[in-house]
Structures are given as structure tokens and as C-alpha cells.
Amino acid sequence: MLLIAHRGGTERYPELTLASSRLSLELGADYVELDIRFTRDDVPVISHDEDALKLFGNPAKIQELTAEQFSSLRYADNHQLHPHTLVEVLSIGAAPVVFHIKEGGKRLPQILECIRAYGYEDKVIMGVMTSEDVRIAKKFNKNIEILALMPSKEHAAEFIENGADIIRLWERWVDEEAVRLIHEAGRQVWVMAGYKGTTGYTSPENILAWKRLGINGVLVNEVEKTKSVLLNFQA
User: Fold this and answer.
1) How far apart are CA 197 and CA 179, in angstroms?
2) Domains of the chain with CATH codes
3) Residues 124-142: tens digit of each pLDDT
4) How far is CA 231 from CA 172, 226, 227, 235, in A?
5) What is the DSSP letter of 47?
6) For residue 175, with 0-12 CB atoms within 10 Å meaning exposed, 13-18 middle and 19 or more buried, which class applies?
7) What letter does residue 165 receive in the DSSP assignment?
8) How far apart are CA 221 and CA 7, in angstroms?
9) DSSP classification of residue 32
10) Which alpha helices (H) appear in 97-147, and where do they start and end?
């Protein structure tokens, strides 16, 4: 079962930083997951939230900031660290990576061209939120891997039809039938951990249950702890 570090992993460094991503990969994550939004001057940057309040103590919307203003922010929990642009991540070579495209549609080709310019097409999985974005990405490169970030599990067939390679299920969506149907379509199933109202966290019992169920990957914040659970797994 693949281990994907949600938002880069958050065990020792703030989320969505190169520091957290490097550590997660060193600890054994197969991928790091990073979110992409756009600034006021149309620069793709690494940001999950619509605003900078939670991480940086600044209430400004990301789309209201220029790329320069965004990069000048400092994490509230660690003033030595700053957020990154997409180009910064690609130029430094953080990989393999899953990009969660928060703003796709007409902006998706810009991200795809950027990934191509930095030779990342075989190092990336594109996480998209609409089946139309699946089609756009596959038209750009039929071999690029696509993760379907569906609004509900009932949309699985639609995303599969448009060419998604991996179907993301939230923890609360997981059941044997859903997993079976996706596997029968020849697609992988990844689970977004979300235990008791959290995002990125779950119990060791759930990790082992998903392993037995044949889940192909899990997105979690705690890379080291989850890796330990998987290493001790007994079929």
C-alpha cells in the first residue's frame, strides 16, 4: 500500500513546506501531496487554504496577493520557513509528488506546461477535482497519471470514463463494494484518512483493515507512524 504524505506531511515541520516534504520522503513516503492555487498575478503557488490566516496569521486571500507578497509570508509556527511557488518546488526537485489542483479548468494547461518545462511528467500524479480536468490532462499527455478527487463516490464511473487512473475515497466512503467496483474497472483506490472529524489522521486498525481490503494507497499526515504500522503488518 502506497504511503502519500498529505500536505507534505506535518509531523515535524509546517505543512506544504519543502522541509516537510523532504523529511516525509526520507521517512519512506512514496509521494508527497501538495496543493496548488493562483496568486493575483496568475502565478501557481503551493497553498491549500483560500487565505493565509491559519498558517501565516494574515487574513488576505491567496488570489489577492502577488507572488512576491505570497513568498514573503512566514509560517506562524516557524518564522524561518516561507511558502513556495510551484516553480520553486519543481526547480528544487521535490519528487515524486501528487499535486492537488485547487483551481483547474482554464488554468490547468498552465500548470501542465510548467510541469513539462521542468521534466516532471513522469514524476507527478495530477489530482483533479472535475472529470473535465481529467480529460484536459489526458489530452495534454495520455500517460500522465491522474488522481480523481471526486465530490462523492457516486462520481467514480464518470471520472473513470474520462481516464482517471486512481480514485480517491474519503475514509467514510470506504466499503468493500466501492473498492471492488473500482478495482474491476482496472483503477487504483486511494483513501484520504479522516478519522473522527480529522483530515489526514486515522487509527492503526483502519490502516490494517484497508491493507487487507486491497487499498492501493493512503493519504496521511503521520508518515513515520503509518510506515511503522505497515511494516508490522501480518497478512
Assistant:
1) 22
2) 2-231 (3.20.20.190)
3) 999 999 999 999 999 999 9
4) 25, 9, 6, 11
5) -
6) exposed
7) S
8) 7
9) E
10) 108-117, 131-140
